[in-house]
Amino acid sequence: MTESTKKAVVLLSGGLDSATVLAMAIDQGYECHVLSFDYGQRSRTELNAARAVATALGVRDHRVIRLNLEDFGGSALTDTSIEVPEQEEEGVIPVTYVPARNTVFLSLALGLAEVLEARAIFIGVNAVDYSGYPDCRPAFIAAFEQTANLATRAGVSGQHFHIETPLMKMTKAEIIAEGMRLGLDYGLTVSCYQADDDGRACGVCDSCRLRAKGFVDAGVPDPTRYQRVTRNA
Amino acid sequence: MTESTKKAVVLLSGGLDSATVLAMAIDQGYECHVLSFDYGQRSRTELNAARAVATALGVRDHRVIRLNLEDFGGSALTDTSIEVPEQEEEGVIPVTYVPARNTVFLSLALGLAEVLEARAIFIGVNAVDYSGYPDCRPAFIAAFEQTANLATRAGVSGQHFHIETPLMKMTKAEIIAEGMRLGLDYGLTVSCYQADDDGRACGVCDSCRLRAKGFVDAGVPDPTRYQRVTRNA
């Protein structure tokens, strides 16, 4: 038997969702080539978390692409003049939205996938707990997949790219349960928008609150390391 | 009258086509925000040409995004172990193809457009003299535009992005004639895949040959500066 290796490019932020996606891709038998981005986000500790997760899961390789999106501005995650809100408003796209982020990340993953002859690209988008980002919806993913297959040499040759979104319809609690089943150590991951240099979470931002609720709902002890709040010390 | 400013993001490589696109966008009354990429291409002089063109045309601003695509490999334009061919084979996607390049460039242009509230993105793709790149075809552009409008806050709000490809159906000679009409100095542009540090062209690569033929067909003197070939000096 000469079955060829199943290769995948996996987008890894260092957060809970993308770490679970990586564990799932490995569980499905893919040789995983991991891609992370250093785009001037406040949370540089996310990248340290991504490296720790990639190492713990023994991936084939891990590339970090530096993108100087600070020049663009427009998001609380990259523009230090905008304050990260503690609670997002309902029904409004949050200020933590980074313009065209998933389009940019998927495009670069596509370029790498074409070079490596990987036909699967995994991304941890989620339509349930998705915080209102337009580029996390199934319609966006389907449109990107179509674009990818028109954009590339491989697509033109009929070897289709698939954008794999295994978390799309899962709740945070279901995601956590799946990661626990696969032996993932969530203590390595960082979800906080404003974690400190040691990777400790603020506990109050939108991302922290969603994550903490997920552990509660999954009935799993929360391994997140939180910053200590000292009052009138 | 309080007509709002028409803003556009214009992708500029420093080559003949994208310089013409920029001149056309300005002629159409757009306030132009120019975006170039430093992606480890051999032809760094392209970026110097882009700066010269942007300055000569008096654009609003010019951003250069650094992308370390060398790590990806897979193209003669970024991988120094692959030789640039003098003539591409017919009907074959050339080795100078950079994986997913226009998808990546358009994605970053989209991010910038969203921040600036520009609704037009100009790119100098061409289906006539397009050298066999899949991401220069109308079907690709249409798919990307659809993706852009699903990906973004603006698209969701019904303010559509348009990918403008004014060169799509023009021959190289027609492009040159249009640029000349708009007063563009093509001596500032560099199209060569292996120009020297002073921006002088090799005269033999696929891009040089297409460009030289364009000037001949347009009946316009070729302002390109070529490298001198010395034999048995």
UniProtKB/TrEMBL annotation, chains A, B:
It catalyses: 7-carboxy-7-carbaguanine + NH4(+) + 2 ATP = 7-cyano-7-carbaguanine + 2 AMP + 2 diphosphate + 2 H(+). Gene3D superfamilies: HUPs. ATP binds at residues 12-22. Pathway: Purine metabolism; 7-cyano-7-deazaguanine biosynthesis. It holds the Pfam family QueC. One of its GO terms (molecular function) is ligase activity. Its cofactor is Zn(2+). Coiled coil: none annotated. Keywords: ATP-binding, Ligase, Metal-binding, Nucleotide-binding, Queuosine biosynthesis, Zinc. The keyword Nucleotide-binding applies. InterPro entries: QueC (IPR018317), Rossmann-like_a/b/a_fold (IPR014729). Zn(2+) binds at residues 192, 202, 205, 208. Its EC number is 6.3.4.20. HAMAP family: QueC. Belongs to the QueC family. Catalyzes the ATP-dependent conversion of 7-carboxy-7-deazaguanine (CDG) to 7-cyano-7-deazaguanine (preQ(0)). This is 7-cyano-7-deazaguanine synthase.
